[in-house]
Design a protein that fits this description.
Helix content: 25-40%
Number of helices: 5
Shape: globular
Structural class: alpha/beta
Order of helices and strands: HEHEHEHEHEEE
Distance between the termini: 33 Å
Strand content: 15-25%
Largest sheet: 3 strands, antiparallel
Length: about 150
């Protein structure tokens, strides 16, 4: 049972990146479907568009920022993103992200899997199943199990 506090390295990273030249510092892009989530990032006291550009985007329908399409990305990280996409829009969304990558770029993800505990909870609830492995949450958002 660990009780020690996990250190916050954010100020150290900020100081490190702040001392780099414009050519040296990494650029991070963060997008979310929810405008409120994007605003939470932008409202953080250490948010600085020199290092990170947060924006709202529906990757199933919207174009990615032009600067992303032009600069090309090293790594796309999808954390519980794929499961929120309708299965019919999955292929085109992944193609759009793939096209934003540099030639040796990576797409990494963490998401729900078929028959994990979250899906088992959905199976036990009535009127939540939309189609095979695709469910609607109480708040109206959807979850697809890959």
């Amino acid at each position: 049972n660990r009780k020690e506090k996990i250190p916050d390295f954010t100020p150290d990273l900020y100081k490190h990146f702040n001392n780099l030249s414009n050519e040296d510092y990494p650029r991070f892009y963060a997008c979310d479907f929810a405008k409120e989530a994007v605003q939470l990032v932008k409202d953080h006291p250490l948010y600085n568009e020199k290092f990170i550009k947060a924006f709202d985007c529906d990757i199933t329908a919207d174009e990615l920022l032009e600067e992303i399409r032009l600069e090309k990305i090293d790594v796309v990280s999808l954390i519980f993103v794929l499961s929120a996409i309708h299965p019919n829009k999955m292929k085109s969304s992944l193609e759009k992200l793939y096209d934003s990558l540099k030639p040796d770029g990576l797409i990494i993800f963490r998401d729900y899997g078929i028959y994990d505990m979250t899906q088992m909870r959905f199976i036990s609830k009535k009127n939540r199943k939309l189609m095979n492995n695709f469910y609607v949450r109480a708040d109206g958002t959807r979850t697809f199990f890959l």
